[in-house]
Recover the amino acids of this structure.
């Protein structure tokens, strides 16, 4: 998980490529793994990758604003691209789609899909809400693309150290490699996974259309026609969402987090909210649900749980931080016996020239669009690079990129450095978020390419096409489908709430909070500290039973029905993995990803249609 509050990646299943566990020297890699004669960077692979990635980025906008989660798109893109080329070859003659073309396609697609997590579901809308300034389509595109380009370039020196030399796991990169090989007959289950994805995508799209577009299916089903403290359970959001996307998301997130989300939802919406209603802290309106009224209070303990839990977890990763610092000295040096082919690896001149150009573009964009002082932007870029280094190592070891706590740390730091300047602190945090997000995405793709024998040079070019295309499409979809007035009401937008809440707190302090909020925040902070320390440093056998600050924190920001539905998805996936492990390896991830992609993409289409009628 990475993007704020969470970014879901998929653990690998099935057979692993040969060098997952064993170190392969560069000389052996060139001789045994690298595929110099195979088609890789082709027009059709890049175009289809950008198209698929842009669609998946729109889906990530929807899931980010709806349930606070964005998804790594490599596996879904690999499956989707393979299906698309099967249909394409039925119409247009031409050579078969190669393994490395599929890798190029999913590299471009994952870069485009990651643009939703590069500030679009967090800092950018939070800035517009807090300042009241509506950025234009061109301004949003320029900001998100220049920020993401920095992250892609940060990955170039990190790749040689963390992938070539240290062979860090990057589990989602391994999973994408396995899936790609299976699709092309070099592994098991590719065709079954693709069919599961296709059918699940169709079912998700049909449900979204009949529910959101035609109004035939209700959004939620209340638990019972009963009341709690004089307020009906339906108004307290106690029920289940009618959503395959949320069920699929629960399956991908996992049982521990979703179980604690259910616990947190019960605590919040049957305890904290009725308590706040009884004391007048929350004043309900005649609306069908009191979510929009109550979340103005519950968001504060939720944000504290997310931020404090993330920061403590980040601080406890001392080994990763120390290893990141030690690796800095080795990145520029050539190890004894190391073979570096600049016709395959990204040349140093590309990195230096590209980074200089990206820094200039970022400084110019921040100044022209936001009026930020060049020195402030440069300091944010330096910090973004340092935190991308640490975050990427953590992702390589655990598949988790701690973007959320790093962005919050940047926001608080720049609030101090700029004397509480809201815009500067928000967008410095957004720059860190976007840079670390894109760097982590690039490293997962490079791990996949390393296992498949792809050229890092050509993967970099595919990433650049994906970033530019995905940045524009994501900004366009955001402008057309998600009016700011609906963020925090129709769409819970947890990431936006988190950045917005931090900005308001830094500006107003405790005086601007609802009554009793400081007490609730202090309790939430204490719980987050204790649970994180016990969960990460305590006995491993107890870890699954330790409350998850991420799960509980999200539950205080989302409607209870969403948390409960996520738990159902996580529980069903856990049962299937226990009872039917082989079928789980084949179908669960593909089916869950299809539910998410189908319903969210159709949800975006319905949202655009609804927004144009407003």
């Amino acid at each position: 998980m990475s993007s704020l509050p969470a970014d879901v990646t998929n653990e690998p299943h099935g057979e692993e490529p040969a060098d997952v566990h064993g170190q392969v020297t560069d000389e052996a890699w060139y001789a045994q793994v690298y595929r110099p004669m195979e088609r890789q960077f082709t027009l059709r692979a890049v175009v289809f990758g950008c198209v698929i990635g842009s669609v998946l980025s729109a889906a990530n906008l929807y899931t980010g604003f709806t349930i606070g989660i964005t998804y790594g798109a490599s596996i879904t893109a690999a499956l989707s691209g393979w299906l698309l080329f099967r249909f394409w070859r039925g119409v247009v003659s031409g050579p078969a789609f190669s393994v490395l073309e599929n890798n190029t396609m999913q590299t471009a697609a994952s870069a485009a899909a990651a643009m939703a997590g590069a500030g679009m579901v967090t800092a950018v809308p939070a800035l517009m809400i807090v300042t009241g300034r509506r950025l234009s389509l061109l301004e949003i595109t320029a900001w998100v693309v220049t920020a993401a380009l920095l992250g892609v370039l940060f990955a170039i020196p990190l790749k040689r150290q963390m992938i070539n030399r240290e062979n860090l796991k990057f589990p989602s990169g391994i999973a994408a490699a396995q899936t790609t090989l299976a699709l092309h007959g070099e592994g098991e289950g590719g065709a079954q996974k693709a069919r599961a994805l296709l059918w699940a995508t169709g079912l998700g799209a049909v449900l979204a259309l009949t529910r959101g577009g035609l109004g035939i299916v209700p959004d939620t089903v209340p638990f019972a026609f009963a009341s709690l403290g004089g307020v009906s359970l339906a108004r307290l959001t106690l029920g289940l969402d009618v959503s395959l996307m949320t069920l699929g998301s629960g399956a991908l997130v996992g049982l521990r987090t979703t179980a604690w989300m259910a616990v947190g939802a019960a605590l919040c919406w049957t305890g904290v909210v009725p308590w706040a209603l009884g004391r007048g802290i929350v004043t309900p309106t005649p609306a069908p649900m009191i979510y929009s009224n109550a979340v103005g209070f519950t968001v504060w303990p939720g944000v504290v749980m997310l931020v404090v839990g993330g920061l403590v977890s980040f601080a406890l990763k001392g080994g990763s931080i120390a290893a990141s610092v030690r690796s800095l000295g080795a990145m520029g040096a050539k190890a004894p016996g190391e073979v570096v082919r600049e016709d395959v690896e990204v040349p140093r001149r590309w990195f230096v020239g590209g980074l200089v150009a990206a820094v200039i573009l970022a400084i110019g964009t921040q100044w022209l669009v936001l009026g930020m002082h060049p020195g402030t932007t440069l300091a944010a870029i330096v910090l973004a690079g340092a935190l991308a280094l640490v975050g990427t190592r953590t992702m390589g070891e655990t598949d988790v990129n701690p973007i959320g706590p790093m962005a919050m740390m940047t926001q608080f730091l720049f609030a101090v450095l700029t004397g509480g300047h809201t815009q500067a602190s928000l967008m410095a945090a957004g720059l860190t978020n976007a840079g670390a997000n894109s760097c982590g995405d690039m490293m997962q793709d490079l791990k996949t390419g390393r296992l498949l024998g792809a050229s890092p040079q050509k993967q970099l070019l595919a990433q650049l096409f994906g970033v530019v295309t995905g940045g524009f499409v994501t900004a366009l979809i955001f402008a057309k489908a998600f009016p700011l007035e609906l963020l925090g009401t129709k769409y819970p937008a947890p990431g936006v709430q988190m950045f917005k809440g931090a900005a308001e707190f830094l500006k107003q302090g405790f005086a601007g909070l609802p009554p009793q909020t400081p007490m609730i925040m202090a309790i939430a902070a204490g719980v987050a500290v204790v649970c994180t320390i016990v969960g990460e440093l305590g006995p491993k056998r107890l870890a699954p039973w330790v409350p998850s600050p991420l799960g509980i924190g999200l539950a205080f920001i989302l409607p209870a029905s969403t948390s409960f539905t996520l738990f159902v998805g996580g529980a069903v996936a856990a049962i299937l993995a226990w009872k039917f492990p082989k079928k789980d390896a084949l179908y669960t991830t593909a089916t869950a990803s299809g539910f998410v992609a189908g319903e969210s993409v159709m949800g975006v289409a319905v949202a655009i249609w609804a927004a144009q009628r407003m």
Q: What stands out?
A: The chain is about 70% helix and 5% strand. Residues 250 and 577 are 14 Å apart (CA to CA). Residues 1-18 have pLDDT under 50 and may be disordered. The beta strands are 6-8, 69-71, 220-222, 227-228, 231-232, 239-241.
